User: What shape does this take?
Amino acid sequence: MTQIENCVDSIPLLSAKVSEVEALELRAIYEISQVVGSALHLDKALSQILYVLHTTLSMERATLVLLDETDTILSIRASYGLTHKEDKWDIFGLNEAVCMKILQTCSPFVVQDIHSEPVFLNMIQYQCFLSKDELSFIGVPIILRKKPVGVVAVDRLFGPEVSFEEDIRFLTKVAILIAQFLKLHQTICCKEKSLMEENRSLRAEVRRPHSRRNIIGASKAIYEVLEKRTRSLKDLEREEVEAALRRHGWVQVRAARDLGLTQRQIGYRIKKYGLRPPGSG
Assistant: This one.
């Protein structure tokens, strides 16, 4: 059989493999879009997205980091497939040097085997955790409003039989979906903060001695409506403070930053509403 005949015979197999990859991509995109459309909490949704990549594709390890509001501090917001020690040391290589390279260039960063990449090998604290098997690294930027805000990185998505270019192409799509979710999350947070501010203004107005006298046609029913509205907004504030604390593992500094409050303000609200971490009694 000639070389040309061999190539012709391999075309159906190649087409089948391409179709299989496309089917996996469509399934993963669909499931991720379901997460983005229904998730209420940022960190939980990001973790679910990484889990989808594992269950639908061949991904075994992943890390997702985001910049804070000052664009200076990177923090791990979700990971998959890492042990406690690996997660603590950021074994997957998402150190500041690697992340900043991806963020500054707004370009993917690919290493076929991190054992041969100096930027990984020079990090002595990671070497005790590295296995001897080949471990790839693919990182792409998460871009929101034409600005890099984070990095999502995986080992592989489709396995060794599929090119790195295909991994990069699909992971870039995933990063776009994550950026859309971040945009939605920011919009929701802004609305929540606006409602909290309205809550504070209404409570202050109701408490003013002359406020009720200025209501035309004031009656007991109107006062009850005002009180009910105030209680409703108070419940909303409590729920949002508690939700922010859960999102950030009950770290008050991060929760306060998320809500646009000072540490003193969030401390006051925690005490006011009697909020406690789960299992603290």
Notes: The chain has a mean pLDDT of 76. The chain has ten helices and five strands. The beta strands are 62-67, 74-80, 109-111, 137-144, 147-154.
